[in-house]
Amino acid sequence: EVQLMESGGGLVQPGGSLRLSCAASGFTFNTYTLTWVRQAPGKGLEWVSGISAGGTIPYYADSVRGRFTISRDNSKNTLYLQMNSLRAEDTAIYYCAKQWTFFDYWGQGTLVTVSS
Amino acid sequence: EMVMTQSPATLSVSPGERGTLSCRASQSVSSNLAWYQQKRGQAPRLLIYDASTRATGIPARFSGSGSGTEFTLTISSLQSEDFAVYYCQQYNNWPRTFGQGTKVEIK
To answer: What is the pLDDT of residues B30-88, one digit of tens each?
Structure first.
């Protein structure tokens, strides 16, 4: 059974940093691309970032490029999202998802709140 | 950036009735389109990919059609568990983009 479990969310002040993690199991981790998607409170889904299976090719939404960094550790079956220079508009539930085309499995999400 | 536009914003349907949701892309996405269902407080769930292929475990009452810029998700006979928000998403181009969602509510 495919499982994705996010962690690392919380309350952070504007300008601060946070690192999200997504622990994966139930599939051959190092052969699949991965994605981060977020959802602001009461709003729709927004694609944030994707990464290749080997971890060498990242893609970013314009809204986060230069502030967020996606990475993965294939030896630990874990996906990361390093978020710097956080803004109020980054407040959202952050989901990790399997694949970077369509997203066939999703975690339950972790809430990031950016507020002073 | 590819803009995905869903209509209607809200669809009011009685249980057992057919529901038809639309998604339009600002440019052709070929058949690189997916549909997701999201219930309150839950993560999205993949329903359809490649415009018309049902994901694993998705009931046959869900069907997708279309290509290019016009797509449709049809729920043939709405069940109580189908009342939720539905999103389309294109994966033909970067960045990946979602529609704004259609809420399917009980009439």
So the answer is: 999 999 999 999 999 999 999 999 999 999 999 999 999 999 999 999 999 999 999 99
User: Which positions in chain A touch B51 (Cβ < 8 Å)?
Assistant: none
B91 and A102 within 8 Å at the Cβ level: the answer is: yes
Mean pLDDT computed over A97-111? 97
Nearest to A60 by CA among B88, B42, B29, B1: B1
Q: In angstroms, rounded to a whole number, what is the distance separating the alpha carbons of residues A47 and A86?
A: 17
Whether A62 and chain B come into contact, CB under 8 Å, resolves to: yes
Scanning the structure block, which residue is given the tokens 């997701």? Answer: B36
User: Among residues A54, A39, A32, A2, which one has the least CA distance to residue A101?
Assistant: A32
Angstroms from B4 CA to nearest CA on chain A: 12
